[in-house]
Amino acid sequence: MRKTLMIMAFVLAMPAGTALAEEGCFVPMSEWQPREAVVKLAKDKGWTVRRIKIDDGCYEIDARDISGKSFEATIHPETLEVLKIEKEKPEKTEEED
After folding, report:
1. How sure is the predictor about 21, in pLDDT bands with cuts at 50, 70 and 90?
2. pTM score of the predicted model
3. Rounded to whole angstroms, how far apart are CA atoms 24 and 11?
């Protein structure tokens, strides 16, 4: 009986775990906004784009904000929604070690 309950718990938990594991913007290329629209989005936000690439099916912008701080922004390719912004952490100097 206990083994059956454990199996049932595993099966019930599987869809939630699968949903959490799925990351990315898996949209058919025919539905993507063009790269120029991504550049315009960044300019409208005051970002200076250093590089745009595709990662896990999303646009990823390597940029600087208006204060000059570096970051990476993940952009949904169809909606151009900003999904995530990761600020770059400053590197430690030898004095800090």
Report:
1. very low
2. 0.68
3. 24
